[in-house]
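Design a sequence for this backbone.
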């Protein structure tokens, strides 16, 4: 997905989801949240803290709450898109403009609660000092290659964790192996999985 460089560009490239995203934008504009662009998508903030974001995907539009795990969720609509990895973030997915229109009063309630939570300073902090859990596939390669193991051990805990999670998250064995082949040269170079995004 190509990152938009402005809100206007985001909506210009929103394709079939244009009207649905505009309706969500209009709903969020009716609040005291500030509209910003982060990671190429509209993000709505309060005192520079992320509260809500919107984006269109292939088969749905998502409205997500950065501290969604704190919401009451009476409509039972919020999902954790990355269970085991994401603590606070929750998504509400819509497959049509009509679905958003139908749920608009409830969406407004969720947004209002999210704003109140932020005003009260309620938030789930990222978990620190999480143990490093190396998947068997990566462990096997590290055991078989002393140079790779030595280089892996020189990396920061955060970088090692990123590599371990990248392999663990893959569902199929074939994908795990493909990812493994991709990261080995990066480990040997002494770079982190996400370093390319920091440039």
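Sequence:
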């Amino acid at each position: 997905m190509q990152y938009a460089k402005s809100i206007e560009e985001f909506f210009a490239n929103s394709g079939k989801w244009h009207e649905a995203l505009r309706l969500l934008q209009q709903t969020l504009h009716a609040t005291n949240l500030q509209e910003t662009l982060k990671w190429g998508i509209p993000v709505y903030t309060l005192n520079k803290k992320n509260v809500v974001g919107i984006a269109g995907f292939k088969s749905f539009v998502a409205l997500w709450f950065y501290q969604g795990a704190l919401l009451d969720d009476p409509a039972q609509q919020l999902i954790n898109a990355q269970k085991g990895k994401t603590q606070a973030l929750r998504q509400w997915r819509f497959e049509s403009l009509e679905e958003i229109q139908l749920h608009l009063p409830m969406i407004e309630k969720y947004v209002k609660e999210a704003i109140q939570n932020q005003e009260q300073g309620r938030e789930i902090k990222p978990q620190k000092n999480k143990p490093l859990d190396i998947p068997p596939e990566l462990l096997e390669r590290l055991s078989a290659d002393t140079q790779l193991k030595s280089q892996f051990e020189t990396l920061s805990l955060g970088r090692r964790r990123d590599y371990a999670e990248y392999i663990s998250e893959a569902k199929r064995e074939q994908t795990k192996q493909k990812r493994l082949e991709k990261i080995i040269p990066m480990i040997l170079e002494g770079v982190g999985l996400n370093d390319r995004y920091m440039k």
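Helices lie at 7-12, 18-29, 97-119, 136-144, 146-154, 157-168, 173-189, 195-198.
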